[in-house]
């Protein structure tokens, strides 16, 4: 079993592809630096990330695949909640390089199909952020929305929020990965809270009452009332309810606040 | 903004909830400088899902629920003893803006009961959306109901602010409508729909001449029909939908299973629960007409005036037309693939794209997400055993596919004690 060890960046992955073709040595599995190696491995190749090599691979791929497929690749890379997504991408890239014509719509192939599924999952997760992010207005006029996405999708949704809420300051924070974005009416910048800070700010998913704007709780109450009254009792359908709004998002949803 | 506002919100949301339209699609508009909000087009965005499983995309609300009409099927009818409330224009504008800023909603769905007269009601509704668009510079989605009987000028003005407008037909048959809603008739309902339609056509012409002419109802209009409150057959309902879809301004027809809100009225049927399965079948038929190239008389006709509640309309069509099958996955055209039960728009696209690379087998079809449980009787690919609908006969296929659904099977070995009634 051949193992490639790299730094878990996208450039690193592309460098792995380059080196594999260079040495005619293809990995059976990829591991990150410092990760435990599989039990039975014959050969370990450590791949040093090289942006020039990565660029060459990316350009070569661009000749084989359409722009849409290239975009799909970069977006699938953000699926850090998906096990071994890097190996899937490696196999896909290798197939794309080897094939005489583009393989991107050959869904009879397991890896092509799997990649399109991962892409769909990630874009779906982005949509969930756009749907279910709930802002709470703080005393200093910043709208704050904590979120725990399965995949690392915050960067993909920022443009949407920047356009939509251009006239208000906001923070969208990925609690699981410990980073977020702050928009100050002009630019968006990345921010991180320390563990103590985020613990002090968030109580059970919501901001502590003393941090909130004066009328914030009133509007939360209003939204909860509305949410309750809009449902038709004769048509109750808890299964569908949970299907469309999975329970894992409830923690930060105002209407589900206890 | 206080506890009283919350009470009003509660009353007016409960009055508005029987309207099923929810979509926020059809317009793409970026935010403008100094404004709030945008619309994304495409699929629209659902921000929440209520306990009944319906999405909450827009703030669906009535301006008032005090009505001069007495329609039998409506919860807000004049003779009902329900709490009544009215929003002030500024109040509703504030709630919409504040909800939108918190990402609760995608925009406003404004409806109203008819108070005093249609023009007066419509004027107040237009005042709300004018305030939102002009003073608050709100760029989110606005869906507004047009009130039957309102003047053309008001519809024209509303159309400049709203993304979508709608008028509910409710009952597809003039006689039944007159029976349940004596003050209304179909002609009075079609009138505002015609206004909107003409406005859209005029606007299209205008925008060809002047690229920056303001858009008029860019997301078109929609309508809704109540299912199960009258004796109208599915054929009547679907024929009307199909006729409506031929007009370019109509984007959606919604079907609303009748929820018995006024149980004391003897003109209405006694239902234990809303006809949800029938409603679902109608939506499936609607999809067949819009995305699967089905003609309405293929789904319902004089021989089959009602949809089969046991199987979906596409399967039902396939069972009636065994001569069209089996379809060869590797050579049939896209339109024919769409007609196979178990293959949808997505899987048909996948099949057409993938089969250029090589023959597709049952294993790959399953992986791609085709529902083989259904599709196996209607397709042929190289390796499938030949138990298609033609060998098994349609009745047998239907029996296999409906087994396990519906009523519980009765075990014949189980002792039964017949109770006296």
Which helices and strands appear, and what pairs or packs with what?
The complex is a heterodimer of chains A (258) and B (421).
Chain A: E1 2-6, H1 10-23, E2 29-32, E3 43-46, H2 51-64, H3 67-77, H4 85-98, H5 110-132, E4 136-137, E5 142-147, H6 154-164, E6 169-174, E7 179-183, E8 188-191, H7 195-201, E9 202-203, E10 206-207, H8 216-229, H9 238-244
Parallel strand pairs in A: 1-2, 1-3, 5-6
Antiparallel strand pairs in A: 4-5, 6-7, 7-8, 9-10
Chain B: H1 3-16, E1 28-29, E2 39-40, E3 48-49, E4 55-56, E5 58-62, H2 89-101, E6 107-111, H3 118-135, E7 141-145, H4 152-161, E8 164-166, H5 174-180, H6 186-209, E9 221-227, H7 234-245, E10 250-257, H8 276-291, H9 296-299, H10 313-320, E11 327-328, H11 334-338, H12 345-354, H13 362-368, H14 372-375, E12 379-380, H15 389-392, H16 394-402
Parallel strand pairs in B: 5-6, 6-7, 7-8, 8-9, 9-10, 11-12
Antiparallel strand pairs in B: 1-2, 3-4
Helix pairs in contact in B: 2-3, 3-4, 4-6, 7-8
């Amino acid at each position: 079993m051949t193992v490639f060890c790299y730094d878990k960046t996208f450039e690193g992955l592309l460098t792995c592809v380059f080196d594999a073709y260079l040495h005619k040595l293809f990995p059976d599995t990829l591991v990150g630096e410092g990760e435990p190696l599989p039990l039975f491995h014959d050969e370990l190749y450590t791949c040093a990330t090289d942006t020039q090599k990565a660029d060459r691979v990316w350009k070569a791929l661009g000749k084989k695949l359409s722009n849409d497929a290239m975009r799909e690749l970069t977006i699938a890379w953000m699926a850090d909640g998906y096990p071994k997504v890097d190996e899937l991408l490696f196999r896909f890239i290798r197939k794309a390089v080897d094939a005489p014509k583009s393989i991107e719509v050959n869904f009879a192939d397991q890896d092509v199909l799997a990649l399109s599924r991962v892409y769909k999952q990630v874009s779906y997760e982005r949509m969930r952020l756009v749907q279910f992010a709930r802002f709470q207005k703080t005393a200093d006029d910043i709208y704050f929305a904590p979120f725990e996405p399965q995949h690392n999708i915050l960067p993909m949704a920022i443009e949407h929020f920047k356009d939509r809420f251009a006239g208000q300051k906001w923070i969208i924070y990925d609690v699981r990965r410990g980073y977020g974005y702050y928009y100050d009416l002009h630019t968006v910048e990345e921010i991180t809270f320390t563990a103590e800070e985020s613990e002090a700010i968030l109580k059970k998913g919501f901001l502590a009452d003393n941090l909130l704007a004066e009328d914030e709780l009133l509007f939360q109450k209003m939204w909860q009332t509305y949410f309750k009254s809009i449902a038709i009792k004769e048509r109750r359908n808890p299964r569908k309810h949970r299907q469309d709004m999975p329970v894992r998002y409830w923690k930060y949803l105002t209407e589900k606040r206890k | 903004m206080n506890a009283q506002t919350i009470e009003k919100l509660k009353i007016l949301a409960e009055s508005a909830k029987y309207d099923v339209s929810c979509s926020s699609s059809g317009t793409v508009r970026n935010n403008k400088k100094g404004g709030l909000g945008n619309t994304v087009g495409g699929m629209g965005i659902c921000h929440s899902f209520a306990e009944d499983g319906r999405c909450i995309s827009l703030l669906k609300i009535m301006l008032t629920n005090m009505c001069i009409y007495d329609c039998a099927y409506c919860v807000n009818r004049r003779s009902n003893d329900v709490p009544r409330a009215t929003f002030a224009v500024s109040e509703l504008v504030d709630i919409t803006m504040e909800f939108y800023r918190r990402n609760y909603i995608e925009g406003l769905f404004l409806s109203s009961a008819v108070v005093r007269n249609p023009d007066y009601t419509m004027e107040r509704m237009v005042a709300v959306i004018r305030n939102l668009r002009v003073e608050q510079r709100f760029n989110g989605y606005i869906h507004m109901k047009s009130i039957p009987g309102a003047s053309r000028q008001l519809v024209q003005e509303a159309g400049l602010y709203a993304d979508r407008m709608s008028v509910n037909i409710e009952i597809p048959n003039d006689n039944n409508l007159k029976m349940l809603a004596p003050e209304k008739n179909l002609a009075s309902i079609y009138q505002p729909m015609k206004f909107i339609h003409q406005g859209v056509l005029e606007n299209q012409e205008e925008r060809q001449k002047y690229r920056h002419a303001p858009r008029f109802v860019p997301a078109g209009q929609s309508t809704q029909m109540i299912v199960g409150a009258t004796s109208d057959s599915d054929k009547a309902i679907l024929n009307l939908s199909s006729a409506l879809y031929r007009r370019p301004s109509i984007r959606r027809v919604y079907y609303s299973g009748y929820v018995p809100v006024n149980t004391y009225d003897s003109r209405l049927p006694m239902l234990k629960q809303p006809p949800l399965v029938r409603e679902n079948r109608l939506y499936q038929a609607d999809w067949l007409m819009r995305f699967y190239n089905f003609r309405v008389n293929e789904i319902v006709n004089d021989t089959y005036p009602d949809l089969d509640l046991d199987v979906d309309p596409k399967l039902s069509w396939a069972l009636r037309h065994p001569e069209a099958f089996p379809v060869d996955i590797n050579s049939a055209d896209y339109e024919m693939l769409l007609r196979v039960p178990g293959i949808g728009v997505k899987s048909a696209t996948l099949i057409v794209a993938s089969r250029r690379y090589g023959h597709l087998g049952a294993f790959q079809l399953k992986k791609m997400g085709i529902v083989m449980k259904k599709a196996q009787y209607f397709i042929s690919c190289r390796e499938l055993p030949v138990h298609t609908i033609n060998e098994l006969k349609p009745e047998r296929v239907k029996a296999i596919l409906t087994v396990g659904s519906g009523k519980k099977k009765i075990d014949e070995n189980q002792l039964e004690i017949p109770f006296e009634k």
